[in-house]
């Protein structure tokens, strides 16, 4: 664990337990193989570090950090801390490895021992990129980092630029989404542990793929959350668990805990971006918000590493300040997920109107949201019972700062049956939505399996060993879905291993003709986005959307027109320019002077400028 001195130039090789060289306090010589342990526990009167060799006393400094330097500790030592008279050994809050689960001892891990091959990697910028979200446990049958490596060539062939990996921090149990993590710096062992994660990142970089890691700083999971025993880490609760003390007494070190964790993923694991879960749940009343502080620290590290490092937020605030530059008074986050874009597209495709979808059934909701990013922009939100959000200044804020998507882990997994869009609409209608996402000025994101209209569901699953906790999660999940109109019989048991197994992708589907056809059109859409730069143009003030109640949409992308017929009947769509060529279409279309006729549930990308050679 890094203490205050480490941040002043004497940084350890890794958090938790580090090998150090140099003089001990008082001038005594420090042997070269001495291992130092440190932990922040400002309110404790005694702290011991437990090793196989026994319990060893630690000394306290003025900042509330406890230290011990032990010359006899082996390199891969397991260790835990004992606080005051509590006989329960606790893992290191900054643990780098938990080989025996979140309740067991921590294990020293040497980040310098891994031999990286990505020395020539210069990073991957978010603007212009296509993001692909995946969950390690269900992306492959084996559910490991090494198994995921075997599928990376599929992503390269698809045209993906950034792989967004759902949380891999340690959580209790074997299977889970990852959002109930409690030891944020330790990689989940059932996936393969820290070295296997590094192999995945290294393999991605070798193929030109950047890696974005999903991290959760807004709460801790319900099992193994021992932080409050060490110090004033917690302050209140939110919908998911205890929240962090970001602005009260002792919060300087708590904030440092978050920042150091984020920097560690970039520095030690070579990731290219972090997706920050639910930042609206971060309660911080300081003049400098944690997001702004984190953004500044990451930018500084980016300059030192000489490669782009990206922060992407999930925010329910609909506040453009999140993605506004710090120089302009914003938080400085590079981008955020935009659920309003998803909701408006989902309702247009499926007709669903329950819950938070209700407002998006209003006439013109989809084109309005495409033009302005936020549908709720200082307007009434019936789901919240109040006005919500703020308008995006489309002349100042580019579209690449907002991720657009048809599906995410949330929007699939938080349905009772975990049904994908492919279970709700025809492949033709899904492809129309894909064309809108991939030809928009926003940063497109796909959810694993979407590119072939996967037939497998993606459900909510967990595997807490504690029977009482397991039953509480099971009961709570059914009650939550009941409030949204689903019957108890429709809700799979999240603790049943079959729920987890059902959620694994079936890669054999790619060999089936209809799945293969969907995959090929996704691939061609991404290739077209790459070959025609106007499709990735992020300037929202130049983005025009024509729409009609029939319903059809026309996206103006420079000289290109992306025409989508979302209706159930053929549509003749007027155009502002003469169409000269069909660059890509999901069905046969008929061109006419200043118009195009499309079959039901189809799209076409048209070029309105004739080839100079013609």
TrEMBL record:
Subcellular location per the Swiss-Prot or TrEMBL entry: Cytoplasm
GO annotation terms (biological process): trehalose biosynthetic process
Biased composition (Basic and acidic residues): 1-13
The protein's enzyme class: hydrolase
Pathway annotation: Glycan biosynthesis; trehalose biosynthesis
One of the record's GO molecular function terms: 4-alpha-D-(1->4)-alpha-D-glucanotrehalose trehalohydrolase activity
Residues under site feature: Transition state stabilizer: 410
UniProt: substrate binding residues: 275-280, 339-343, 409-414
InterPro entries cross-referenced by the UniProt entry: DUF3459, GH, GH13_cat_dom, Glyco_hydro_13_N, Ig-like_fold, Ig_E-set, Trehalose_TreZ, Trehalose_TreZ_E-set_sf
Keyword Cytoplasm in record: yes
Keywords: Carbohydrate metabolism, Cytoplasm, Glycosidase, Hydrolase
Predominant place of localization: cytoplasm
Any matching Pfam family: Alpha-amylase
Catalytic activity reported: hydrolysis of (1->4)-alpha-D-glucosidic linkage in 4-alpha-D-[(1->4)-alpha-D-glucanosyl]n trehalose to yield trehalose and (1->4)-alpha-D-glucan
Domain Glycosyl hydrolase family 13 catalytic: 133-502
Annotated spans, Disordered: 1-29, 85-105
Family stated for the protein in its record: Belongs to the glycosyl hydrolase 13 family.
NCBIfam families per the UniProt record, alphabetical: trehalose_TreZ (TIGR02402)
Designated name of the protein: Malto-oligosyltrehalose trehalohydrolase
Organism: Solihabitans fulvus
């Amino acid at each position: 664990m890094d203490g205050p001195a480490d941040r002043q130039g004497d940084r350890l090789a890794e958090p938790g337990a580090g090998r150090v060289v140099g003089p001990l306090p008082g001038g005594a010589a420090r042997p070269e193989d001495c291992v130092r342990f440190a932990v922040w526990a400002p309110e404790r009167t005694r702290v011991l570090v437990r090793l196989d060799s026994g319990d060893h006393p630690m000394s306290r400094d003025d900042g509330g950090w406890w230290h011990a330097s032990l010359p006899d500790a082996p390199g891969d030592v397991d260790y835990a801390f004992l606080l005051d008279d509590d006989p329960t050994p606790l893992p290191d809050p900054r643990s780098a490895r938990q080989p025996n689960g979140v309740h067991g001892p921590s294990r020293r891990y040497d980040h310098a021992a891994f031999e990286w091959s990505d020395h020539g990697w210069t990073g991957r910028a978010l603007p212009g990129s296509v993001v692909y979200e995946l969950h390690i446990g269900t992306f492959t049958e084996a559910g490991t980092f090494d198994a995921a490596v075997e599928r990376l060539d599929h992503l390269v062939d698809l045209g993906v630029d950034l792989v967004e990996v759902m949380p891999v921090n340690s959580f209790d149990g074997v299977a889970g989404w990852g959002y109930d993590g409690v030891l944020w710096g330790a990689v989940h062992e059932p996936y393969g542990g820290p070295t296997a994660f590094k192999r995945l990142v290294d393999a991605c970089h070798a193929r030109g793929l950047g890696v974005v890691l999903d991290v959760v700083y807004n709460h801790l999971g319900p099992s193994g959350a021992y932080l409050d025993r060490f110090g004033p880490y917690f302050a209140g609760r939110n919908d998911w668990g205890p929240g962090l003390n970001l602005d009260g007494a002792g919060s300087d070190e708590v904030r440092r805990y978050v920042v150091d964790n984020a920097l560690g993923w970039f520095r030690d694991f070579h990731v290219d971006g972090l997706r920050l879960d639910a930042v609206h749940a971060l309660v911080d009343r300081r003049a400098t918000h944690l997001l702004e502080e984190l953004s500044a620290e990451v930018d500084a590290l980016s300059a030192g590493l000489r490669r782009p490092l990206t922060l992407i937020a999930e925010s329910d605030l609909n506040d453009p300040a999140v993605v506004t530059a710090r120089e302009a008074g914003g938080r400085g986050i590079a981008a955020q997920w935009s659920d309003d874009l998803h909701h408006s597209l989902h309702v247009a495709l499926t007709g669903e109107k329950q819950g938070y979808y209700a407002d998006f059934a209003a006439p013109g909701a989809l084109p309005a949201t495409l033009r302005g990013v936020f549908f709720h922009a200082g307007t009434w939100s019936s789901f919240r019972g109040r006005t919500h959000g703020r308008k995006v200044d489309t002349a100042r804020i580019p579209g690449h700062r907002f991720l657009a998507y048809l599906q995410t882990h949330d929007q699939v997994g938080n349905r009772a049956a975990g049904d994908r869009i492919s279970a709700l609409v025809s492949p033709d209608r899904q492809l129309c939505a894909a064309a809108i996402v991939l030809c928009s000025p926003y940063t497109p994101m796909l959810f694993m399996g979407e590119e072939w209209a996967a037939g497998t569901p993606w459900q909510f699953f967990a595997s807490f060993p504690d029977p009482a906790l397991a039953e509480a999660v099971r009961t709570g999940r059914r009650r939550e879905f009941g409030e949204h109109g689903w019957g108890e019989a429709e809700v799979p048991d999240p603790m049943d291993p079959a729920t987890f197994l059902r959620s694994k992708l079936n890669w054999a589907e790619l060999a089936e003709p209809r799945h293969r056809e969907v995959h090929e059109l996704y691939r061609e859409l991404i290739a077209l986005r790459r070959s025609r730069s106007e499709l990735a143009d992020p300037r929202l003030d130049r983005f025009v959307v024509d729409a009609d109640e029939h319903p059809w949409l026309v996206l103006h992308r420079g000289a290109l027109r992306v025409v989508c017929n979302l209706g159930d009947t053929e549509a003749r769509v007027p155009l502002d320019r003469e169409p000269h060529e069909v660059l890509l279409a999901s069905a046969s279309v008929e061109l006419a002077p200043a118009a195009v006729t499309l079959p039901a549930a189809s799209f076409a990308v048209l070029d309105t400028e004739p080839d100079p050679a013609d």
